[in-house]
């Protein structure tokens, strides 16, 4: 089994496109370089922010191969999203990810069908039994309608490769409940940008972040400051960050965060249909939030040496 710490910052990376609707690998590399330079601890590709709903299986395959090759020899694990309708297809994707060199998978409950608790756990167990890859369970009942409960995690205890959870229930008590019941058996990564600092303060081991796609240094710095117990400095970054972080909890989070990455010179506004680029008053409103934050950027300490 591959080794992932599940500690630190794991950006849910954007999938940049060219004007011709192809994956823009040179631009992706610019963003990836910014993430690595900032000090992220791993990357997640093909998730919601990566426009998983519209990239093809072949594109996802080539994207994974590109990331594995690019990060070969570096200590930055590549995690790929597995979000499928059927157990059979999810297992096939997990096995293919393993074959292509992925370091781990982020596993969603079955999509489209609102499975009950037993069905979801059976699905997770089947995928976990089929692959040696470490697994990050995505617990997001707000967007996907299925909550992975403490009892369900208890059933997953025998599966050593089920190692972590992207905690997006938006119920901060769930972090404490998970820690009280399981200790460090399941690493907890906060998955909602607008409660990221609270998640870290309550004991989450890191973050699966969204606005990190545009502002990697600020994201990593905030995390490092919390771990160094320099809370006032972490709060200062968080307060500056909040108008931007709120872009992560909107249905158009892809367009909003791509606009932010564009403003930072590490992304573009191109999205894949049926998504459309922002325009008119909406684009101006979001761009003002982004530009105001950039104009009043908070000073960062030498966070890499804390």
TrEMBL record:
GO molecular function: 4-hydroxy-tetrahydrodipicolinate synthase activity
Tagged with keyword Lyase: yes
Key words of the record: Lyase
Stretches that traverse the bilayer: none
Active-site residues, as the UniProt record annotates them: 138, 166
Pfam families xrefs: DHDPS (PF00701)
SUPFAM superfamilies in the cross-refs: Aldolase
SMART domains: DHDPS
Residues noted as binding pyruvate in the record, renumbered to the chain: 208
Family of the protein in this entry: Belongs to the DapA family.
Protein name: Dihydrodipicolinate synthase family protein
């Amino acid at each position: 089994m591959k080794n992932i710490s599940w500690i630190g910052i794991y950006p849910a990376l954007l999938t940049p496109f060219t004007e011709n609707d192809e994956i823009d690998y040179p631009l992706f590399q610019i963003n990836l370089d910014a993430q690595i330079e900032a000090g992220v601890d791993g990357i997640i590709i093909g998730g919601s922010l990566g426009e998983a709903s519209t990239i093809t299986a072949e594109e996802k395959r080539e994207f994974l191969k590109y990331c594995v090759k690019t990060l070969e020899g570096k200590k930055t694990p590549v995690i790929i999203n597995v979000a499928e309708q059927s157990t059979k297809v999810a297992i096939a994707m997990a096995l293919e990810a393993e074959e292509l060199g992925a370091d781990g998978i982020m596993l969603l409950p079955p999509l489209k069908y609102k499975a009950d608790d037993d069905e979801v756990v059976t699905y997770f167990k089947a995928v976990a039994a089929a692959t040696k890859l470490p697994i990050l369970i995505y617990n997001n009942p707000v967007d996907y309608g299925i909550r992975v409960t403490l009892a369900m995690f208890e059933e997953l205890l025998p599966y050593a490769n089920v190692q972590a959870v992207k905690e997006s229930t938006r119920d901060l008590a769930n972090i404490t409940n998970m820690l009280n019941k399981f200790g460090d058996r399941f690493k907890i990564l906060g998955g909602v940008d607008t409660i990221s600092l609270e998640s870290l303060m309550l004991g989450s081991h890191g973050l699966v972040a969204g606005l990190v796609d545009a502002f990697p240094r600020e994201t990593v710095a905030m995390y490092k400051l919390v771990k160094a117990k320099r809370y006032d400095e972490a709060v200062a970054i968080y307060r500056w960050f909040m108008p931007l972080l709120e872009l992560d909890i909107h249905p158009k989070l892809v367009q909003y965060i791509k606009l932010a990455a564009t403003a930072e010179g590490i992304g573009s506004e191109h999205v894949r249909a049926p998504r459309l680029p922002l325009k008119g008053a909406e684009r101006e409103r979001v761009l003002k939030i982004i530009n105001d934050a950039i104009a009043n950027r908070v000073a960062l300490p030498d966070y890499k040496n804390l």
